[in-house]
Amino acid sequence: MPQPQVEDSGESESGKPTGLWVDLGVDGYLATFCLQEEVNELCQRGDVPATVIVVEHRPCLTLGRASSLAHILADEETLVRAGVEVHVSDRGGDVTYHGPGQLVCYPILNLRDYGCDAHAHARRLEEIMIGTAAVFGVDAWRRAGCPGAWTTRGKLGSVGIGLRRWVTMHGAALNVCPDLSAFSLIVPCGLQNVAVTSLEQVLGRPVDMAQARAALKRSCAEVFGLSLVETTRDDLMATMAEAVA
């Protein structure tokens, strides 16, 4: 397979609106959700620009609006022993797993700037994952009726979105090199007999997470037409504090 060649997309690009890129490293689901809510509210008011949060979550299951508890195959004791938390989410979709080695991308932006089309937003999220995979020489695609990114080895990434006054929340989860055995705890996205894969499994070699992050950032910038400027959680929090002062 070809080695990935990733360019930095953080510098200002003429003619493109500026957005923020906030990499949280590894963080819990609830802390990230609370940050999403705060950014979403300020984005509704126009006090912060489009913001993309990227994170690797600590092991957890999240239940979207279409979830069935029957799709959690492990009992509570097994989940506790494995250190896997369970959270109810207001995103669309069914149950999914998040954990280290999976890049979760939360674009928070005003869909009024993108035609007020939630379905088109979901397709853009798929395109971001497909574009990221392509950097590593992995061919991924959409599958009719089954949102996400797919390969010959199975499902590579999932999509689940939410909207508040046309400002987006939640997003896409791309499997770079997670522990795929964790998906045996659930019926992923409510799809029976579907294999879940990762870039690492498809390639048959380790994948550098820093390169995956850079590829994801570039893909987000291209798909959303933004010049993404890297900032820290602390700087973002300071910006938000000034906005509400």
Radius of gyration: 17 Å
Please report which band the strand proportion falls in: under 5%, 5-15%, 15-25%, 25-35%, 35-45% or over 45%: 25-35%
Total DSSP helices: 6
How would you describe the shape?
globular
Question: How many domain units?
Answer: 1
CATH-defined architecture? 2-Layer Sandwich
In helices, the fraction of residues equals: 25-40%
Characterize the biggest β-sheet. 8 strands, mixed
The helix-strand sequence is EHEEHEEEHEEEEHHEH
Reported by name, the CATH topology is BirA Bifunctional Protein, domain 2
Q: Uncertain spans, ≥5 residues at pLDDT below 50?
A: 1-11
> What is the count of β-strands?
11
Q: Distance N terminus to C terminus?
A: 52 Å
Across the major sheet, the strand order is: 7-8-9-10-6-2-1-11
Condensed summary:
With 245 residues, the protein is an alpha/beta fold. 31% of the residues lie in helices and 29% in strands.
Describe the protein in words.
This protein has one domain: 2-Layer Sandwich (BirA Bifunctional Protein, domain 2). The strands form two sheets. An eight-stranded mixed beta sheet has the order 7-8-9-10-6-2-1-11. A three-stranded mixed beta sheet has the order 4-3-5, with no helix packed on it. By secondary structure, it is α/β, with parallel strands linked by helices. The chain is globular, with a radius of gyration of 17 Å. It has six helices and eleven strands.
Describe the protein's topology:
Elements: E1 18-27, H1 29-45, E2 51-57, E3 60-63, H2 76-82, E4 85-88, E5 95-98, E6 102-108, H3 118-135, E7 141-143, E8 146-151, E9 154-164, E10 167-175, H4 199-203, H5 209-224, E11 227-231, H6 233-244
Parallel strand pairs: 1-2, 1-11, 3-4
Antiparallel strand pairs: 2-6, 3-5, 6-10, 7-8, 8-9, 9-10
Helix pairs in contact: 3-5
